[in-house]
Specification:
The chain has 224 residues and is mainly α. 50% of the residues lie in helices and 6% in strands.
């Protein structure tokens, strides 16, 4: 496994970056055509609105409310995610935009994941939307670099069951690579999606092994 020669700034204000990422997605979706809300995302069966409903759960459910809903599913987070996405995805776009701008959401951290996990959560799910709907947003370099640096520490590929045996992922816009073997190149943000088990739109990657990672579906069930 190889990584970038230099890690991103360890003094990066993660709280500000997390808030900035959520706010940027809200501004983008507010300006996008209404049909963008019903565009398919990179999460199987979820449109933009369902992904937003999922990623903004902390803006609508406090700790006790979340645990009550989780208990109702027998502790099955995947079932809870599907239920909340279906129900809350039907909320008005204005409500979901308000959730993305919620300070409560910006302060949330996933259990055991800390601020790094929260940044990964908002960046990856934002990319599920923008790459899936072809909205053309580029995540700021410092944020995607931080996500990729953390990917090696947490081993996101193993967490998501992404088979990278005999494959090297190499960013063409950032000094970062992962793994060894057949070369697959593309934008850093697209490779972050590959690490997290997503299959990305055709044409976003180059290399002989790209067919293994092109768009099909992503199995849900974790915070990202």
């Amino acid at each position: 496994m190889t990584r970038a020669d230099t890690r991103p700034d360890t003094d990066l204000d993660l709280a500000a970056e997390i808030a900035g990422e959520f706010l940027a997605l809200a501004d983008l979706l507010e300006a996008a055509p209404p049909e963008a809300w019903d565009a398919p995302s990179l999460c199987a069966g979820w449109r933009t609105r369902e992904v937003v409903a999922h990623m903004t759960m902390p803006a609508r459910y406090d700790g006790p409310q979340f645990m009550e809903r989780l208990a109702a599913t027998g502790g099955d987070f995947s079932a809870l995610s599907d239920a909340v996405a279906a129900e809350d995805g039907a909320l008005p776009a204005a409500t979901l935009l308000g959730n993305l701008r919620s300070e409560m959401l910006h302060a949330w951290e996933p259990p055991g994941g800390g601020a790094q996990g929260a940044l990964t959560h908002c960046v990856i799910h934002g990319l599920d939307i923008t790459e899936g709907a072809g909205l053309g947003r580029r995540v700021p370099e410092n944020r995607i670099a931080r996500v990729l640096a953390g990917a090696g520490d947490v081993d996101l590929a193993q967490l998501f069951g992404t088979d990278l045996a005999g494959v090297e992922l190499r960013a063409d816009d950032l000094d970062w690579s992962y793994g060894a073997g057949e070369l697959v190149t593309g934008p850093a943000q697209v490779l972050a999606l590959v690490l997290c088990g997503r299959r990305v739109p055709q044409g976003r990657l180059t290399g002989q092994g790209t067919t293994h990672f092109t768009r099909d579906s992503h199995r849900r069930g974790t915070w990202v």
